Amino acid sequence: MPPDQVEGLEFIKNTDTDFARALDIISPLPSRHRPAGFEQLCKIIIEQQVSLASAAAIWRRLQAAVSPFTPEQLLTKSEEDLRAVGLSRHKARYCRALAEDITTGNLSLEDLHDMKDEAVMTSLTTVKGIGRWTAEIYQISCLGRTDIWPAGDVALQTALQHLKELPERPDPGKMDVLAEPLRPYRTLAAQILWRYYSDIVRPSTR
Question: Is the pTM of this model over 0.70?
Fold first, then answer.
């Protein structure tokens, strides 16, 4: 386990007793690291609001259709071509919009590595179809940022409601308030909740 993760886990356990309890009953946290770049950002777009199984199936077909997986190659495919491999009309447009912004120089994914979190969020969300959730997942998975909190993620909301025995699922505003004491390790807190959702919440609802 990386030293910064050990430090982060200790901070979270000492700060929030509910998270400390969660850590005692969940399985080890998996690595969520993905390589940075156009390919993985397209994959995150495809994962918006669909099951992981559905996203994986669509992604396999898209990879087969776009090879090599570059912005230039994706732009050789029409919106209808992308829909034919399973993308919705909106997601086909979003992936093409991302490719266009990169090829025209409106967005440099390489420059994001040297930007602060807020600047990364601003740069990514200027792309059509990239909102807060997509930008946050990219920062967590591909840029390794340590204090990102995807407050709009339904699984995180559901897990936090369950963990803290809240009367209703917290909205993004309430999520942000509840996570404020966990700075600067909110990414790690989110990873704990995702695992808690997978191990504890989802099995109990079956």
Answer: yes
